[in-house]
Amino acid sequence: MKALGKKEKVLQSSVTEEKIRLSQLIKRTYILGYSPEDGPAINTLSDSKVSAFYLKKIALKRSEIIKNFNSKITEIDLLQEKKRGIRKELKKIKKDTSKQKSVAEREKQKTSSEIDATKTQIKRSEQKITENKKRLTQLFAELEKRKEDRIKNNNLPDQSLSGKPFKTLKGKLRLPALGTVTAKFGQRRVGSELPWEGIFISSNQGNSVKSIAGGSVVYSDWLRGFGNLIIIDHGEGYYSLYGNNETIWAREGDQIEAGGQLGTVGNSGGQTGPGVYFEVRHNSKPLNPMEWVNIDN
User: Fold this and answer.
1) Interval 9-33: pLDDT, tens
2) How many helices (H) and strands (E) does the chain have?
3) What spatial distance separates the first Cα and last Cα of the chain, rounded to whole Å?
4) Distances (CA, A) of 130 to 120, 187, 202, 241
5) pTM higher than 0.90 for the full model?
6) Per-residue pLDDT, 21
7) By C-alpha distance, which of 291, 264, 265, 270 is closest to 280?
8) 244 vs 200: CA distance, rounded Å
């Protein structure tokens, strides 16, 4: 564009010069009546011949100047048309560049937002992993502690406590199955914030499950979360519960003596292994079964 502008200025200057030359030529011819370029020989001609001679010279010179003038005007018009085309192209390029810049800026912002979102997600994942590691460490510590605190039971209930009021038997009862107490009353369940409302006695599949004291069977059926469940009413609002059984022998309405067979050990309640889930309640309130039994091996 600079080169075209420079060339246009030169042509404009040349046109101006042509205009001046043409003006001077006409002025000199009509005012002076001769041209110094023709020399003294012209003075020897008659006035009519001189006039004809100069008119011819003027016409030729004017034709030449006008031809050059028109040629330069045409060239200037072409240059201006070319400049307009270049300006139009530059405008289009500028518009396209602006559009591309806008798109690039949006993409940049989008990418930046995606990066920020990814960073946030990674941070949350790291926090979650840290929390999971912490919970896992606590779980292992709890499992180790429970292993250390496990109680082994080698005795079953018998008929020696039959006929006695249940409330007088605290600290004298036997656990309903042979095995190891692997979950205690009030402990938090593994993988949950809920506490145990009874105890879990891990035992071999098929071992006997016996009643801790005399009473009446008020429930004998499968119950979600408890599996095959038996509930015995011992009177005065005291109840004992036996869940997770493989089989249940006692039926609703049966009268059971202390040490009576209720069923066999299984895993119908969805625990981690075979055993008996055991509760003691008073008026529906869970009591700590370990305070009611005597572990004397």
Assistant:
1) 666 676 677 667 666 666 665 555 5
2) 2, 11
3) 109
4) 15, 24, 33, 40
5) no
6) 67
7) 291
8) 9
CB count, 10 Å around CB of 201? 27
Q: For 153-291, CATH number?
A: 2.70.70.10
Please identify every stretch of the chain with a pLDDT value under 70, giving residue numbers as ranges.
1-12, 14-15, 18-19, 21-59, 61-62, 69, 141-149, 191-192, 297
Tell me the C-alpha distance between 1 and 8, whole Å.
Answer: 10
β pairing state of 199-202 and 275-282? antiparallel
Dmax over Cα atoms in the chain, in whole Å?
Answer: 174
The Cα 47–Cα 85 span in angstroms is: 56
- pLDDT per residue as tens digits for the range 104-155: 777 778 788 888 888 888 988 888 888 888 877 877 766 666 555 678 989 9
Q: Where are the alpha helices (H) located in the chain, listed in sequence order? A: 2-32, 47-149
**Cβ atoms of residues 275 and 201 within 8 Å:** yes
Count of Cβ atoms closer than 10 Å to residue 146 Cβ: 15
Q: Which residue has the tokens 């930046």?
A: 112
Cα 4 to Cα 88, 94, 199: the distances in Å are 15, 20, 100
- What is the length of the chain? 297
- 9 in Cβ contact with 83 (< 8 Å): no
